[in-house]
Amino acid sequence: MLFDVRECATSSWLQATPLTTAIVPAWKLSSPALFPLPMSSSPATALVPLDFRVIVAGAENPKEFHSALISNDGWTSEKSSEFPLDIVLGLEKPANIYKIQIDVADENAPSEIDVQIGSYKDNQAVEPNYENASGADYIKKGVMRFTKKSAKEPLADSQLLYVDSHGQFIWLVLDEPNNRDSTRTHISLQRLKIFGYKQKYEKPREKTKAPKSSSPENQSKPKKSNASREDMRFSSEGDGLSMNNNMLAGDPLTSLRIVKKVLGDKRENALKEDKGVEASMCLRAIERMAEYEKRIEKLKSKMSEALIKGNSAMAEKHRLAMSDCRDTVFRAVHIDLLLNRSELRSIGVDSQWSSNDDPQD
């Protein structure tokens, strides 16, 4: 389900649905015309630019948006545009979206761009049209920021965002330009490229069992459990701590590093306040996380190698192992006792033991 990417978004772009309290962008409330881009169906096992279809370009014509974007002059919005401005792109099929590149060339660059990746359950392939784009589940992957340039600095700028995520839709939310003192309200992009791997995403398949012999020797052996390997996770729930894939939890390495940084700050504050026990707990947690961080880095490298070779089943296995490592170390250091509830939710963790206040010594 979509979540609000801006805590202070303008009401003209984000509206509440009449049946729920969920925040829904304006582009999901009315269907614009759809103009497909040429698609390439040839398989690839290396990192390549991915062809995409422009589904939404604010209130402007998607075809004109694409034509301007591939021209030498780039795209500039209409002067009457309102912000934030939604850009929605669709791929022909789900793919591993590795990175997104956006170039700007003048003073009308957006101040920042929120990036979300959308997909359906089990990465089901759907037609990249407006209806399917509005029904996909989106996860925020990061923010590109374009700083305001001084008079002596060149205006050209290029930003890369590494998302390394499976999906079929890309939702970009463009904020107003940095030239706030100007009477102009339009925004410009020079170039937009998406890089990834085109191979089809597949869930890991269970190995087929060899047919058993009808000999008395085999019949006397006890039958093994038919439990699926997909349910046998290294880190299991049931201890009051649960993880989800919302927000930062979708990237185990990023969420682990953020928690390390937060615990480092908490340790410094605990030392200043003479809370020795809390400082010691934070230090030990940081040390344990550093050990698991190295493991996750190796698994992520193996996952990328598997994707390059087109082995999506092995890549999914490494991805699950990364999440298991992150979940295991969070449980090992009792992360729900070190962080408060709001901090836990920001990294996709729910706990029945966490408090609303900072943990006390």
From TrEMBL:
GO terms for cellular component: cilium. It comes from the Eukaryota. Residues 200-245 are annotated as: Disordered. Residues 74-177 form the Centrosomal protein CEP104 N-terminal domain. It holds the Pfam family CEP104_N. Keywords: Coiled coil. Transmembrane segments: none annotated. The keyword Lipoprotein does not apply. Residues 282-309 form a coiled coil. Residues 200-209, 227-236 have a biased composition (Basic and acidic residues). This is Centrosomal protein CEP104 N-terminal domain-containing protein.
